[in-house]
């Protein structure tokens, strides 16, 4: 394995008070190598430079710890629309006690993630091929997770319909966002309530030693999601749950 300079990444981790041992750092290194190699033959990420991947993918994935303080917490986490494995795989490496399910609608990505899980020797993590609209209707997934996270690129009203049905009462849905989200959050408040959620707070942060701004939204699941959600046929994206006054 090629020795690369990860000193900036280590400084970033220190600023966020995240400690990784040599094994964990080697796992991230191997994950990076597998990611850029597979990216040559399939579209996983537009970001491939080493330091950029460390900061914009790995470190950003670990930002959840700034909000939730994950050390020692035994929680079931669903990473919906995981893509190349973010934030789920970096979270599993850094906080191995988490029980994580990676879900994506593209099977090629899931095959890659299963290879990563095997190569890195990770346990307590599974990668599942599935669409949110279908998987959320299955008893083994519906309202079974303490936490659902997503870095998927969809507006919050749509993303809430995809994700909240998987969260148990008392759990949370936390989407990772970039850019200005006040209007998007306002637009999504009807959907959040309709799906059994309640907005708790917005956490705005910058990635350490950069001017890259990010946002997380904490939504608590307070009621069961009505059985009619999520809707099929692409409706969460085409016809998001928005109240008339917000249209």
Description of the molecule:
- The chain is α/β, with parallel strands linked by helices and 247 residues long.
- It has one domain: 3-Layer(aba) Sandwich (Rossmann fold), CATH 3.40.50.150.
- It has 10 helices and 7 strands.
- The chain has helices at 7-15, 22-38, 50-62, 64-68, 88-94, 107-120, 132-135, 156-163, 182-194, 235-238; strands at residues 76-80, 99-104, 125-129, 145-150, 167-178, 197-206, 213-221.
Globular, elongated, flat, extended or rod-shaped: what is the shape? globular
Put simply, the count of helices is 10
The Cα radius of gyration reads 18 Å
Question: CATH class, anyone?
Answer: Alpha Beta
Q: What's the number of structural domains?
A: 1
- Portion of residues in helices? 25-40%
For the sheet with most strands, the description reads: 7 strands, mixed
User: Are there runs of 5+ residues with pLDDT below 50, and where?
Assistant: none
**Can you list the strand order of the major beta sheet?**
3-2-1-4-5-7-6
Strand residue content: 15-25%
Element string (H = helix, E = strand): HHHHEHEHEHEHEHEEH
CATH fold field value = Rossmann fold
Oligomer: single chain
Structural class: alpha/beta
Reported CATH architecture: 3-Layer(aba) Sandwich
Tell me the span between the first and last alpha carbons: 53 Å
Q: What do the pLDDT scores average to?
A: 93
In CATH terms, the superfamily is Vaccinia Virus protein VP39
Give me the count of strands.
7
